Structure to design on (624 residues):
């Protein structure tokens, strides 16, 4: 990835595209923890890509590209989230919920976003960063500017919730 | 606990399916990322409009019962404020401001401007050909969309190329489509579609471009005729105290859109597919002179006794109260001191302040319909550098701290023939209870005597 970042910084557009495509699933999952509506997720990702493209040269350490862009993404998600008003929940969101309730659950195929969908948004975000993106609690602490102990306790609490939720289904 | 740990790790390795809509947007953005700021600005323009629209639609569920009429037609009832007969009395007729495309015409026929917003009334007459092209009056979801959605539903969860052709791709939206299958298209007018000089201007006042918050509603008069009401929030920040000004509207596009008023659940934002979304660019400009004198002469200012509400790092106060013949307008200023990016963007930050709302009541405790809208947002960093951000926005992704943010917000309250006191209750969204704010925490209230 670092090599791609170097090339992208030298205005190699295909390298930049490749970088984005490499992490697009991760971006989608992270945005989904905060935003339910697909249009909002798409907006957040679009803004993030444009900001990253415009400001890539300002990235000091190439190895932190992913962390850097995730920070941008989380901020973009927060911005969109903050604009949301009460009652402005699209039908799309409600229907996603309904649909998922009747879906067969199998941990061999279930998507990570669906698996954690009932957690609180901060728990979802932290779990996604920890288990999917494989960041350490220390790194997550830096990304989210939350104490590492808080990150650990949120992970622990989220795991208990998941255990309770899936006890009769996945764990049997 | 180890077992759940293993399962989470296993699930995290499963393939994540990105919806086609997201994939398409990523590809589109990568393809267009180099076209200066075009892709960015176009998206923002559209988003801003949709956002405002959604906000107002959101308020409908609360205020719909109050209704409102213009010329005895339920034109602005979904906006939630009742202008009653005063609209007719104070609106100014406009003549000879017509633009056309072949036989289709767009006429500005009246304007009304007061302390809060200005209303532009358009009469749009469509030729048979253009009505057909815009699919005005026809169902938003076509038979083909329906078949695609049904097929997706039957083939299981997941997205494929076909999902790009329906308004809300993904099998989970099947029920939504079914419920709204009879929603028809109406028309809308978009202003300054050309994003001239890459700047977002949807109105020109005395030849200076502005992006003013706006809302639009359309009323069908006949199969080929529609009345379009465009409401701009033209406040002090834009008009700078002018009571008379010239307005120019240009770059006008006629488009089709779902007629929300016909939908069973009016909070839905239903869109035409890429194939079914149609637009017609209409060349020419509309010019008109607007005077607020008549309304200003019949308005009164009410003093507020400098009450303030303090909450976390925010202090807000009422700057100005104006009672006009059509509404009551309250200007509210807010100052957020010593803030960091986290304070305003992260819902898990201890100093985070959620979305604020106001509930307005009369002296008997009856709720009065109202809407609020931010019109200015300025941030001053610790080094003294000042930036103006888009309203409601967080304009940077860079970390900062010890900054000051100032906002101006307007609370527009439905006209009341006679009222002695107003109580305005200020509440913030309780983030902990629900992601999208199911409950609100009161942070203070203003009690205003209206008889002064």
């Amino acid at each position: 990835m670092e090599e791609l970042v170097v090339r992208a910084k030298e205005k190699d557009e295909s390298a930049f595209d490749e970088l984005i495509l490499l992490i697009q699933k991760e971006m989608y999952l992270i945005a989904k923890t905060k935003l339910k509506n697909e249009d909002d997720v798409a907006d957040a990702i679009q803004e993030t890509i444009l900001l990253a493209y415009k400001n890539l040269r300002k990235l000091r350490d190439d190895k932190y590209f992913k962390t850097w862009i995730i920070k941008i993404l989380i901020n973009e998600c927060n911005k969109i989230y903050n604009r949301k008003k009460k009652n402005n929940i699209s039908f799309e969101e409600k229907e996603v919920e309904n649909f998922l309730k009747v879906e067969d659950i199998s941990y061999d195929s279930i998507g990570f976003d669906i698996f954690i969908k009932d957690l609180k948004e901060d728990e979802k975000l932290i779990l996604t960063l920890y288990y999917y993106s494989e960041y350490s609690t220390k790194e997550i602490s830096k990304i989210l500017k939350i104490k590492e102990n808080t990150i650990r306790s949120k992970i622990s609490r989220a795991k208990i919730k998941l255990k309770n939720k899936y006890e009769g289904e996945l764990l049997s | 606990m180890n077992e759940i740990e293993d399962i989470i790790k296993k699930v995290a390795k499963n393939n994540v399916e990105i919806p086609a809509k997201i994939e398409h947007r990523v590809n589109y953005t990568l393809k267009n990322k180099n076209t200066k700021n075009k892709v960015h600005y176009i998206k923002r323009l559209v988003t801003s409009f949709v956002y405002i629209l959604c906000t107002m639609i959101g308020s409908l569920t609360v205020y719909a019962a109050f209704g409102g009429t213009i010329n005895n037609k339920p034109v602005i009832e979904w906006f939630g404020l009742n202008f009653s007969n005063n609209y007719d009395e104070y609106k100014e007729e406009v003549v000879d401001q017509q633009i056309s495309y072949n036989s289709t015409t767009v006429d500005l026929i009246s304007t009304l401007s007061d302390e809060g917003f200005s209303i532009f009334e358009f009469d749009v007459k469509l030729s048979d050909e253009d009505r057909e092209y815009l699919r005005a009056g026809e169902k938003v979801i076509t038979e083909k969309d329906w078949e695609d959605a049904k097929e997706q539903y039957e083939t299981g969860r997941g997205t494929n190329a076909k999902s790009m052709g329906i308004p809300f791709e993904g099998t989970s939206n099947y029920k939504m489509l079914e419920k709204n299958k009879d929603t028809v298209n109406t028309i809308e007018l978009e202003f300054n579609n050309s994003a001239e000089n890459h700047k977002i201007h949807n109105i020109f006042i005395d030849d200076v471009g502005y992006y003013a918050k706006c809302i639009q509603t359309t009323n069908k008069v006949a199969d080929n005729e529609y009345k379009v009401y465009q409401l701009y929030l033209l406040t002090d920040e834009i008009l700078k105290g002018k009571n008379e000004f010239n307005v120019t509207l240009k770059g006008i596009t006629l488009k089709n859109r779902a007629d929300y008023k016909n939908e069973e659940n009016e909070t839905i934002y239903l869109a035409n597919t890429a194939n079914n979304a149609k637009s017609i660019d209409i060349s020419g400009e509309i010019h008109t002179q607007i005077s607020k004198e008549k309304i200003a002469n019949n308005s009164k200012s009410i003093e507020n006794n400098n009450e303030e509400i303090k909450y976390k790092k925010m202090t807000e106060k009422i700057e100005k109260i104006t009672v006009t013949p059509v509404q009551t307008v309250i200007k509210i200023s807010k100052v957020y001191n010593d803030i960091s990016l986290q304070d305003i963007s992260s819902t898990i930050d201890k100093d985070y302040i959620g979305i604020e709302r106001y509930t307005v009541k009369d002296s008997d405790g009856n709720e009065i319909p109202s809407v609020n809208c931010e019109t200015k947002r300025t941030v001053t960093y610790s080094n003294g550098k000042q930036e103006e951000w888009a309203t409601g926005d967080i304009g940077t992704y860079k970390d900062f701290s010890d900054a000051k943010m100032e906002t101006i917000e307007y609370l527009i309250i439905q006209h009341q023939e006679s009222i002695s006191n107003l109580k305005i209750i200020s509440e913030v969204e309780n983030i902990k209870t629900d992601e999208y704010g199911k409950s609100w925490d009161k942070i203070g209230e203003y009690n205003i005597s209206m008889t002064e």
About this structure: DSSP finds ten helices and 24 strands in chain B. The domain at 299-449 of chain B is CATH 2.60.40 (Immunoglobulin-like). Chain B touches chain A through 73 residues (CB under 8 Å).
